[in-house]
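FAQ

Q: What does a record look like?
A: Structure on top, sequence underneath. For example:
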């Protein structure tokens, strides 16, 4: 470590001078090195942000895990609506054929024991 207990110490050994870093500069250096290390640790995540891989991964997870049940449910609802509309169409065609087939004939409707005769006046 490049930290000394005194603010500056000068030592004369083999004609070299060693000067320690002052505590204030040491703390600033530690802060810069720590911030740089954190930035290097975060760099892969920042790179993922720039190429939107997290969005792509999220859509893949949603489409893999959520869309299959959703598509199955949509198909069930669609099949149910097709069957219902087919039955309704068949019932309407049956009703129309009966109505058109009985046109011009006498129809009898009974209403609690009494009958009503309907005739076509044409």
């Amino acid at each position: 470590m490049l930290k000394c207990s005194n603010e500056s110490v000068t030592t004369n050994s083999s004609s070299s001078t060693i000067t320690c870093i002052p505590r204030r500069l040491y703390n600033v250096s530690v802060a810069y090195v720590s911030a740089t290390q954190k930035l290097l640790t975060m760099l892969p995540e920042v790179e993922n942000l720039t190429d939107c891989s997290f969005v792509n991964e999220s859509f893949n997870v949603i489409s893999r895990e959520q869309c299959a049940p959703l598509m199955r449910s949509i198909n069930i609802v669609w099949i149910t609506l097709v069957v219902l509309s087919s039955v309704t169409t068949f019932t309407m065609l049956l009703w129309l054929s009966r109505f058109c087939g009985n046109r011009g004939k006498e129809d009898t409707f009974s209403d609690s024991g009494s009958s009503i005769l309907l005739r076509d006046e044409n």
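Q: Is there anything notable about this one?
A: The chain has three helices and four strands.
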